[in-house]
Amino acid sequence: MGRLHSKLSGNHASKYRTDRYEEESCPGKAPLQYSPAHNGAVTSVATLASDLCVSGGKDKTVVVYNWRSGTVVRRLVGHEREVSKVACFPNSNWLFSASRDKTVLMWESRRSSQPAQCFSGHELVVTGLAVSPAFQQLCTGSRDNAVCVWDVEMGGCLQRATVSRNLVTHLCWVPGEPYVIQTSEDKTVRIWDTRDLQVAHAFPPKQHIQTSCDVSLDGRYCVSSSSGFGGEGCEVTLWDLRQTRCRVREFRGHIQTTASCIFLPPGLAAFPGIATASHDCTVNVWNQDTGACLTTFCLAGAGPLSALASCENAALLCASSNSGIHLLKVNSAKGLELQEAATF
């Protein structure tokens, strides 16, 4: 795939590695207070490498942050309005940011402070962002009811499709497949076939807005989260992506909108797990097979929680409205519990 493909295989995260995190963070100690990544609310976070994350905020910036050392690696400025979503090719230098300015920018995280590519074509805020290393493609969605597929290297729009009232809230790519999962304010979870950009399947509509989604690494399941208030709605739904494509179970426990849901990677827990973050300031970890809530951690004063990402060393990154990004360790020594290790 030319220049971009050759760079995707490179992983130079070790350049930024440090032992400070391992030395200073341990159970029972107060969370480390690192330099803030953003000035104001953090809207999105994603893992870039073993010790690097990417985040976007209402301050219009995209930040590459080393959460082990508590330092800003790069601060990328180019959007005219707040950043709504970030995504990246894991273990590479390439990352993407969507914004209320209706554009998506592609960045080369270490060599230039200028965007490598601009994807422009949506008429309203871009609210969905998913990338596929396997297909070298970017998929975007917006409140303009449109979903677009882009050529990452050339920057051109390959396909565009519109569904009435489909106000996109989130997108995620099925690993290694030409399918994208999409949630919407019309309460529907859709599966798009990116080869012709047609809806391959739509699950039965839920009772509330679907706010986010994620796909398991084996591509067998997806999970979506619901808006709500006072315990009405707020659930997370596990869907089967195989032949039946039916609802498997619901996870209930949050009392306000569940803003983010992710599958836990193998090794982070001893069971198939799902993590969720809510406007009620809590992060829950659920057993995927039984639906049981195994642990709840409250980030008091953090305001509505906006996004989750998993990283190595049994840790979660949680973006918040009032207190930056929180690094949560998953501790299985005495059952399962979450511990706050750092804030930045």
List the helices and strands and how they pair.
Blueprint: H1 2-8, H2 20-24, E1 32-33, E2 42-49, E3 52-57, E4 61-66, E5 71-77, E6 83-88, E7 94-99, E8 103-108, E9 117-120, E10 126-132, E11 137-142, E12 146-151, E13 157-162, E14 168-173, E15 179-184, E16 189-193, E17 198-202, E18 210-215, E19 221-226, E20 228-229, E21 232-233, E22 236-240, E23 247-251, E24 258-263, E25 273-278, E26 282-287, E27 293-298, E28 305-311, E29 315-320, E30 325-331, E31 337-343
Parallel strand pairs: 1-31
Antiparallel strand pairs: 2-3, 3-4, 4-5, 6-7, 7-8, 8-9, 10-11, 11-12, 12-13, 14-15, 15-16, 16-17, 18-19, 19-22, 20-21, 22-23, 24-25, 25-26, 26-27, 28-29, 29-30, 30-31
What is the name of the CATH topology of the domain at 203-344? Methylamine Dehydrogenase, Chain H
Distance from N terminus to C terminus (CA atoms, Å) equals 36 Å
Beta content comes to: over 45%
Number of distinct beta strands = 31
CATH architecture of the domain at 203-344: 7 Propeller
Descriptive account of the structure:
This protein has 344 residues and is mainly beta. It has a domain at 203-344: Methylamine Dehydrogenase, Chain H (7 Propeller), CATH 2.130.10. Helices cover 3% and strands 51% of the residues. It is built from two helices and 31 strands. It has helices spanning 2-8, 20-24; strands at 32-33, 42-49, 52-57, 61-66, 71-77, 83-88, 94-99, 103-108, 117-120, 126-132, 137-142, 146-151, 157-162, 168-173, 179-184, 189-193, 198-202, 210-215, 221-226, 228-229, 232-233, 236-240, 247-251, 258-263, 273-278, 282-287, 293-298, 305-311, 315-320, 325-331, 337-343. The chain is globular, with a radius of gyration of 19 Å. Mean pLDDT is 90; it is low at 5-25.
